[in-house]
């Protein structure tokens, strides 16, 4: 089968899927820059996959139908007006990476056939280490308001008051000046200069995680969280803020509502194998490829 993948320049999530499907199918990839180039590749394809439910699928849905059409929505797209501008009778499948997106799409996507295919983690790239209680926490994310980094600072402050050895290692960079200024101000004000270590963007997250005991997420909304899943696959204990929809992604026993609950998780039960197995059972990349292959096969 000939499959064309279209994206807006962000191909981080789709690239592993392209690599796998290219072993069985004839595959081409295009960062959409103009309608003509997009339509020419659509005419070549049996199936056109539009990664991210954004402007390129809006435009494509108003072109002549020349192949089967798939689009995948991750998260931020549902808070835009793009879903409202797509001709959904043109689309053959809408892939959602999480069921917690349903309420944001209800009434906006016509009668298109929908399927949930969760994100997958390549376990071969996540070296498992049997870990135990310790003092190193990881925060893995680009730092912007949705990631709620100030809450992480309150948690590490409480831990440091218990034992000064607790340290929060941050893998990621600030995305806006206001968040950066506020966070640096609070780190200084709370006396956390030695306990919050900014490591910048980490290319090899697997090696970086080897000395980490816990992965902390304080986001106010997610459709997944690759950083959390990769850390769990490496044996780290998850401590995850209970945002709306979190229970559809993670086991509720790892979800906290208050700073005190998060702090209590640090000293609570620790089972590295359980964290790895959860990712293996729910977010195994090989299983997700099989689900994608099945979905594509149904389009013939």
Layout of helices and strands, plus pairs?
Layout: E1 2-7, H1 15-21, E2 26-31, H2 35-44, E3 47-51, H3 55-60, E4 68-73, H4 82-85, E5 93-96, H5 102-105, E6 114-116, E7 136-140, H6 149-162, E8 167-171, H7 177-189, E9 196-200, H8 205-208, E10 214-217, H9 226-233, E11 237-241, E12 255-256, H10 259-267, H11 272-282, H12 285-297
Parallel strand pairs: 1-2, 1-3, 3-4, 4-5, 5-6, 7-8, 7-10, 8-9, 10-11, 11-12
What is the third-level CATH name, the topology of the largest domain?
Answer: Rossmann fold
Q: What is the rounded Rg?
A: 21 Å
- Portion in helices: 25-40%
Could you name the CATH class of the largest domain? Alpha Beta
**What would you say the CATH architecture of the largest domain is?**
3-Layer(aba) Sandwich
Strand order of the largest sheet: 2-1-3-4-5-6
User: How many beta-strand runs?
Assistant: 12
Quaternary arrangement of the chains shown? Answer: single chain
Q: Specify the biggest β-sheet.
A: 6 strands, parallel
What's the shape? Answer: elongated
Characterization of the model:
The chain has 300 residues and is an alpha/beta fold. It folds into 2 domains: 2-120 and 284-297, Rossmann fold (3-Layer(aba) Sandwich); 123-282, 3-Layer(aba) Sandwich (Rossmann fold), CATH 3.40.50. The chain has 12 helices and 12 strands. It has a 6-stranded parallel sheet, with helices on one face. The protein has a 6-stranded parallel sheet with strand order 9-8-7-10-11-12, with helices on both faces. It is elongated, with a radius of gyration of 21 Å. The relative contact order is 0.13. The model has no long low-confidence stretch (mean pLDDT 96).
């Amino acid at each position: 089968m000939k499959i064309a993948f279209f994206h807006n320049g962000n191909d981080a999530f789709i690239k592993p899927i392209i690599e796998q499907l290219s072993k069985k199918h004839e595959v081409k990839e295009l960062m959409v820059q103009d309608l003509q180039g997009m339509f020419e590749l659509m005419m070549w394809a049996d199936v056109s996959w539009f990664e991210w439910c954004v402007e390129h699928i809006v435009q494509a849905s108003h072109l002549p139908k020349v192949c089967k059409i798939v689009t995948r929505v991750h998260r931020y797209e549902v808070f835009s007006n793009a879903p409202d501008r797509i001709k959904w009778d043109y689309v053959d499948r809408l892939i959602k990476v999480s069921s917690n997106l349903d309420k944001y799409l209800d009434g906006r996507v016509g009668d298109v056939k929908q399927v949930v295919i969760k994100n997958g983690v390549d376990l071969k790239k996540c070296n498992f280490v049997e870990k135990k209680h310790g003092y190193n926490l990881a925060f893995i994310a680009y730092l912007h308001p949705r990631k709620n980094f100030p809450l992480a600072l309150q948690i590490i402050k409480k831990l440091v008051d218990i034992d000064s050895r607790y340290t929060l290692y941050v893998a990621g960079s600030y995305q806006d000046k206001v968040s950066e200024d506020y966070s640096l101000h609070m780190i200084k004000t709370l006396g956390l200069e030695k306990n919050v270590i900014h490591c910048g963007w980490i290319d090899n997250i697997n090696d970086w995680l080897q000395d980490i005991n816990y992965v902390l997420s304080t986001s106010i909304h997610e459709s997944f969280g690759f950083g959390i899943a990769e850390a769990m696959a490496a044996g780290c204990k998850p401590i995850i803020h209970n945002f709306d929809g979190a229970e559809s992604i993670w086991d509720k026993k790892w979800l906290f509502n208050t700073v005190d609950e998060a702090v209590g998780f640090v000293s609570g039960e620790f089972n590295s194998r359980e964290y790895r197995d959860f990712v293996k059972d729910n977010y195994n990349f090989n299983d997700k490829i099989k689900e994608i292959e099945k979905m594509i096969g149904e389009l013939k």
